[in-house]
Amino acid sequence: MKKILIALLALILTGTNTYSQKIKLIIDAGHGGKDFGAKNKAGEKESDLCLLMAEALQKYAQENGMETIMTRTKKEQTLTHEQRSGFKTDKNIKYYYVSLHMDKDKTASTRGNKLYYYSRAVSSGISKTLAERIAKGLERVNGNKSQIEDKEAVILKRNSVPSVMVYYGHVTNPQDVKLAKDPAYQREVCMLIIRSIMETRY
Ligand SMILES: [Zn+2]
């Protein structure tokens, strides 16, 4: 009986440590303002599409008990790398950083997802695992191949918290753009990012 109680207590305690810790998700809508990123023939900007996904991610993350920080909340906002990354952190909170982007290609039919992490960043191991989980999830959600790359991007380099850049399709591909604007698809992408974070605890 005593042994069972101790085991139960241990389970409750480790459970508290591992799973009840507050998560803060920093959501970075790529580009913005004077820097609109990539643009397609219809004039749609990567920066505007990413803001839509960022707003959805904020909503679903909060619904799933996470706190959120948005680096950008307006279309016309131009941010520096410093305003986008390297946030002060609280040691009692687990932070994650997701920067949202769409890729571009000369050929409109090109599709596919891309995930960036930086192998020399402070939290590179967790970032890589997170990138791998999101990559797999995106393949399931949109049926396109995902690539993972080790990239020395300024924001990834400046961040100490687990950080990934997520390219969920191409702004130059009409199907990807249609999906990117669809609330049901946005929900699927956001939920897979949230699940991937939940599975990648540190
Ligand atoms: Zn971009």
Task: Explain the overall architecture.
The chain has 202 residues and is of the alpha/beta class. The protein has one domain (22-199): 3-Layer(aba) Sandwich (Aminopeptidase). Helix content is 44%, strand content 19%. It contains 7 helices and 6 strands. Strand 4, helix 4 (124-142) and strand 5 form a beta-alpha-beta unit. The site of zinc ion has 5 residues, from loops.
DSSP strand (E) fraction?
15-25%
Tell me the radius of gyration.
18 Å
Based on DSSP secondary structure assignment, what is the total number of beta strands? Answer: 6
CATH topology: Aminopeptidase
Tell me the CATH architecture: 3-Layer(aba) Sandwich
Count of alpha/pi helices: 7
Number of domains: 1
Helix content: 40-55%
Q: What is the C-level CATH assignment?
A: Alpha Beta
Q: Quote the distance from N terminus to C terminus.
A: 32 Å
User: CATH homologous superfamily, by name?
Assistant: Zn-dependent exopeptidases
**Each distinct ligand:** zinc ion
Spatial arrangement of strands, main beta sheet = 2-1-3-6-4-5
